[in-house]
Fold this protein.
Amino acid sequence: MPSIDLNRQTAGQTPRLPSENPALELPPAGEAPARLFRSFGLGLLACLAVLSASVVYTQAQWMPSPATTPMAQRNAMNLLVNQVGWFQNTTRTASAYRGGGYEMLTQQFQAVRDQYNGLKSTLNPMQLNSGANQLAELDSGLAIIQEAFADYQNAVANGQSQFSAFSNMSRVLNEAMGVWLQELKRDCSQLRVGW
Amino acid sequence: MRQAGIRNTIRPRRWLPAAAVVAALIGCATTETATKTPTPRDDFNEYRKTVIEGMSLTDVTLHALDEISMQARRDPRPAYQAFAKAVHRIEVDSVKMRARTQAMRARGDAYFAHWQEFLATVNNEEVRKLAAAHQSELKQSFDRVHLASQQVREVFRPFLNDLQKLRAVLETDPSLARIDSQKNLILAAKDKGRQVQQGLDRILAEMNTMTALLRPPTNAKH
């Protein structure tokens, strides 16, 4: 509050009492606390708004794109596990399909590959980096399992009966895919996929 | 005044919902990255275990192959069944080892970098220090493991091809005459199998060297 020097006079001016200085005028009785609270409230609201905005901004920066969320990963994982299950079921029943079992298995195997690629696309950069070895092994695992189809063709060419060669191939595909799935689940647990 | 007093008591409550919203937003912003952090895999011991399993598989298969020749004059059918079973087992159980070998080839030094990452996070401080101190020796051992793995990989597929061909040929007629007609194929398969065994032996020897480098010295006081 500015002090009033009664000794200092400018020409023609008489010192004004505080009550005569609009700047120093006290608000009417009752209005002072109201104004004070209003100012305080507005200030608090401004602070809260800034804080909320910074929190939301931080969240927006941190939050991964929707495709790599835990839910997306869980969904992709479920789809893949289901697809592997269907494939394994087909290996056990495909021999009953006249002439169509081989094609059915190749198509279902491709579906497994596609779902696996779908799962990989949901992994975030930390998981991709940390799990690079595991993912390379899973990739290679699928490529090696796929060799069973060529082995079947070679077995038939070498004189083995189609039925027997197909039966061998189906068993290898079924069991090898089971091993692959075990490795996948273990790797996904280590990489916190879906967490 | 009284009215102002009443207003005074009411107004602060107006900010409570906003404060609650902000508090909730702050709570939502809290991350729990600690539990979501992937844990490094013990690649080193995993690979060593896979190599030992591969050695056992190869031994069983070569033994079954020997049995076919040995039992050819008596009753080769049980020996053939055991051989066919061994071939099936090696087809399935070798997938893990082959996948790791292939991944190692595809990723090269980056594969080893992950081994080092794991070693840097091991609980045992002495092991961590040894891993840091013997980094170049470990890298050299890894390079030898890598080379031996490639050699095994190159001979394993032809070995498996020979086994599968033999299985196909002998399936309908595992007689002495048929076995005798396939003796060159049997010898070729045995030769390749021995190369696979030797390669796996080399890999295991290098991994044992690496294990020795990382083993803390025993405390004399104990």
